[in-house]
């Protein structure tokens, strides 16, 4: 899987949802996983030929699990010439040692997002790009339906009024398997989080795998349904969190 093959659907998503404006300052939330590294790499490539000039940098929220976890990512960004910042936090200690959360994912996500937004504001950036892809959209739809009884999913673009930052998800048209193939030679950092493989999202992945055996291509069908806002109104072009 080449960058060019992934850039085409990413560019379409950016145009469909008007994600990038001239002179935007875009920070990519870099966890070190395959999705965020793919997004950073693809936006860097897109930056070279986009008719809307924009600044780009990567920001990693270090939760405090281990020292030097993100050195390979730092080296990768230096090779590409992408500005990169690691923000040290004590999120891991707060969640697992102090609060001893049994279901840590929701609180962790809020704390990491808060730390990201603070760093973005401090650097004068106006947009946050996250590496969610088409499979994430479908899994979030199922999580919302199964656990909350409502039809909802990730938005391609949303304005976070508290931080005055616009969140964009340029990879929402990309399949996870294609991203995995694209990043096979990148310095992907395995998540040190002890809850990494024991989440509700993982259970949705398992359910989709089982459904796909009986209904081949079911995830793609879900995605196609979600991607028609005029029919289902799940994706609005202007959305505020």
Task: Write the SSE topology.
Blueprint (H helix, E strand, L loop, with lengths): L2 H14 L7 E6 L4 H16 L4 E9 L8 H10 L3 E5 L2 H8 L6 H19 L3 E3 L4 H15 L8 E4 L4 E4 L7 H7 L17 H15 L3 H9 L2 H4 L9
Parallel strand pairs: 1-2, 1-4, 2-3, 4-6
Antiparallel strand pairs: 5-6
Task: Give structural notes.
With 241 residues, the chain is α/β, with parallel strands linked by helices. It has one domain (3-232): HUPs (Rossmann fold). It has ten helices and six strands; from the N terminus they run αβαβαβααβαββαααα. It has helices spanning 3-16, 34-49, 71-80, 91-98, 105-123, 134-148, 176-182, 200-214, 218-226, 229-232, and strands at 24-29, 54-62, 84-88, 127-129, 157-160, 165-168. Strand 5 (157-160) and strand 6 form a beta hairpin. The two termini are 34 Å apart. The model is unreliable at 237-241 (pLDDT under 50).
């Amino acid at each position: 899987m080449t960058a060019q093959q992934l850039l085409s659907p990413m560019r379409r998503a950016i145009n469909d949802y008007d994600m990038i404006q001239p002179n935007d300052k875009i920070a990519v939330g870099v966890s070190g996983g395959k999705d965020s590294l793919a997004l950073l790499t693809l936006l860097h490539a897109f930056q070279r030929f986009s008719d809307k000039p924009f600044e780009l940098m990567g920001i990693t929220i270090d939760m405090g699990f281990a020292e030097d976890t993100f050195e390979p990512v730092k080296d990768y960004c230096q090779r590409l010439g992408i500005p990169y910042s690691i923000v040290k936090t004590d999120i891991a200690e707060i969640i697992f040692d102090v609060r001893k959360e049994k279901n840590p994912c929701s609180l962790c996500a809020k704390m990491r997002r808060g730390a990201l937004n603070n760093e973005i504001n401090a650097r004068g950036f106006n947009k946050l790009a996250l590496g969610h892809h088409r499979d994430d959209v479908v899994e979030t739809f199922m999580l919302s339906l199964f656990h909350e009884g409502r039809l909802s999913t990730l938005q391609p673009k949303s304005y976070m009024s508290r931080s005055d930052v616009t969140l964009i998800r340029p990879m929402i048209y990309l399949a996870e398997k294609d991203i995995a193939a694209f990043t096979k030679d990148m310095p992907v950092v395995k998540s040190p989080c002890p809850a990494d493989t024991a989440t509700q999202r993982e259970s949705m992945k398992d359910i989709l795998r089982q459904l796909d055996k009986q209904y081949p291509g079911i995830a793609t069908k879900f995605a196609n349904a979600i991607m028609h806002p005029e029919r289902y109104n799940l994706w609005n072009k202007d959305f505020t969190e």
